[in-house]
Design brief:
The structure holds two protein chains of two kinds. By secondary structure, chain A is an all-alpha fold. Chain A is built from twelve helices and one strand. Chain A has one domain. Chain A has helices at residues 15-28, 30-44, 53-71, 78-103, 110-113, 121-149, 156-184, 187-202, 214-221, 223-237, 242-266, 270-273, and one strand at 2-3. Chain A is globular and about 60 Å long. Chain B has one domain (3-239): Rossmann fold (3-Layer(aba) Sandwich). In chain B, 34% of the residues lie in helices and 29% in strands. Chain B has helices spanning 18-30, 77-84, 117-127, 132-146, 161-174, 191-203, 218-224; strands spanning 3-14, 40-44, 47-61, 66-70, 92-98, 101-104, 179-183, 210-214, 227-232, 235-239. In chain B, the strands form two sheets. In chain B, strands 6-7-8-4-9-10 form a six-stranded mixed β-sheet, sandwiched between helices. In chain B, helix 3 (117-127) packs across helix 4 (132-146) and helix 4 (132-146) packs across helix 5 (161-174). The chains are: A mainly alpha, B alpha/beta. Chains A and B meet through strand 1, helix 2, helix 5 and helix 12 of A and strand 1, strand 2, strand 3, strand 5 and helix 3 of B.
Chain lengths: 274, 240
């Protein structure tokens, strides 16, 4: 027997107020999402000798090889290129993990979503925490490389906190946005992986953008360039990338608005898409 | 006051993407074959678009209520329990739950099988807003009641389903809930543990004003429940 539902009166509560409440209440569960993030990390490296240290080891090996191979092609001096590539890749990884990790934020947390009435944003904060643990561990070999080649400015420390704050905020927004979209449309997950691989070559990480020409344009139009510059420019050149701050902040604002829009409209439906 | 009020609550499980396309074969293959299991399938232009899992539920639960939900497979027992536990937002209608809820919905959900029993206790505690110190205080009681002993230090994937049930029930009841929701918990416990569960449920009367249990086993619920809800294809028939 089949039937059509009639007489269902839909609830008309303020979905935006509910979404904001979810996001703020979720932040309050910091003990939980930190614990969940550590559990996930430990699980990934369970039964391996070096454990979580693999993150640092693989980063160091990968960087050394890349500097050795690609450094030869570059006209600029080796020390500068090594710093450019290492810091660039460190931040690119943070962005890339935010995008690809976001797609699994809710799909990967099914077991909890279907059993505990927690704010959904908890799972987004967990992903953010996870990414920052990875960032902190890979930053150790990255800074070691920079110190070794002499590519650093102490004044970058001043910009560390505001940059990390913006990265964290943006990661959460991307998580809310891509999390709900990819729960509904599963292709997004695979698409984002491809997109981030392409973005790696399109962003000035392996290459140093020239002053003019199509590659200079490609670098300028790519938001990743500006997010990377927030930390890389003070670190390598000792100057503040004001334009990049303006562009990054605007991008984050747009992502935040989209995030709250998508999250608010799909929050109640999300569990049925998992 | 601890209470649950549901007004005209309906839950529709939407079919998305390919689920809905698969369903287009449904008409050709099965015709209009009647079935007594599952919620009603909602059609739009001969395409299935959703399943009506809960159909206009009205329910008032007051302190002291011991409610047994029974009914055949797919009749909406678990859905009802999850709506009351705040897991499924109602598609229509309103649910108001006042009180601290603790629930055990399924043996396969709400547990990290790679983590140890103790780590799972920690995660569950954090999910219920406890601090680490408060969680540590609960551990002896959970360990004692579940009788899992050294297994608490091993990953949950090494547990049998009965042992997993012991862990989950021990945690859910140790969290001092005001409302306890249990789904299909009887099937896996051995006789010894079932007796302990019964005993604990008796004792919990004072601290836990509302207990709701869903089960296939009507007989088992009969002795225990003060109110019974019979589910039939998403419709709740309340037999007080």
């Amino acid at each position: 027997m089949t039937t059509t539902v009639e007489g269902l009166t839909l609830r008309r509560k303020n979905i935006f107020a509910e979404a904001f409440e979810d996001v703020f209440r979720g932040a309050g569960y910091w003990r939980l999402w930190t614990a969940l993030a550590w559990h996930a990390m430990r699980q990934r490296y369970r039964r391996s000798w070096i454990g979580i240290g693999w993150l640092g080891v693989s980063f160091a090996v990968f960087m050394t090889v890349k500097i050795f191979i690609f450094g030869g092609f570059m006209s600029s001096d080796m020390g500068y290129y090594a710093g450019h590539l290492t810091i660039g890749y460190l931040i690119y990884r943070l962005i890339s993990n935010a995008v690809t990790g976001s797609c699994a934020v809710f799909v990967g947390a099914q077991t909890w979503i279907k059993s505990e009435p927690l704010p959904l944003s908890v799972h987004v904060y967990k992903m953010m925490m996870n990414n920052f643990i990875i960032f902190a561990i890979t930053a150790v070999p990255a800074l070691a490389i920079c110190a070794y080649v002499g590519a650093y400015n102490i004044m970058a420390l001043v910009w560390l906190l505001p940059s990390l704050a913006l990265y964290a905020f943006t990661t959460v927004c991307i998580g809310l946005l891509l999390g709900v979209i990819s729960a509904r449309y599963r292709d997004i997950m695979h698409f984002s992986q491809t997109a981030m691989q392409v973005a790696y070559f399109l962003s000035p990480i392996l290459w140093i953008p020239p002053e003019t020409g199509p590659r200079a344009m490609a670098a300028f139009l790519n938001p990743i360039t500006h997010y990377v510059a927030l930390l890389r420019q003070p670190m390598l050149e000792g100057t503040i990338p004001l334009l990049s701050w303006v562009i990054s902040l605007s991008c984050s604002l747009v992502i935040a608005l989209l995030a709250i829009l998508f999250f608010a409209t799909s929050r109640r439906k999300l569990i049925f898409w998992l | 006051m601890v209470s649950i009020t549901a007004r005209n609550v309906s839950v529709v499980f939407p079919m998305v993407g390919s689920d809905s396309r698969h369903g287009s074969k449904l008409k050709k293959k099965t015709g209009r074959a009647a079935t007594s299991v599952g919620g009603k399938i909602i059609l739009e232009d001969d395409h299935p678009v959703g399943i009506l899992a809960l159909d206009h539920l009205n329910l008032n639960v007051r302190p002291g209520d011991r409610i047994g939900i029974f009914g055949p497979n797919g009749s909406g027992k678990s859905t009802l329990l999850r709506v009351l536990g705040g897991i499924y937002p109602p598609t229509a209608g309103e649910v108001e739950v006042t009180g601290k809820v603790s629930a055990m919905f399924s043996l396969n959900l709400g547990v990290n099988v790679e983590a140890t029993g103790l780590e799972n206790i920690e995660l569950k505690g954090l999910m219920h807003g406890l601090k680490r110190r408060e969680i540590v205080e609960l551990i002896p009681e959970i360990a004692d009641f579940s009788e899992l002993g050294d297994y608490l230090h091993l990953p949950v994937k090494t547990y049998s389903s009965g042992m997993r049930m012991r862990l989950l029930f021990s945690i859910a009841s140790a969290l001092n809930p005001e409302i306890l929701l249990l789904d299909e918990w009887v099937s896996t416990g051995d006789k010894n543990f079932r007796e302990k569960v019964d005993e604990r449920l008796e004792k919990m009367l004072d601290n836990t004003p509302i207990v709701i249990i869903a089960s296939h086993n009507e007989k088992r619920i009969e002795n225990w429940a003060s109110r019974r809800i019979r589910m039939d294809r998403g419709k709740a028939h309340i037999e007080s």
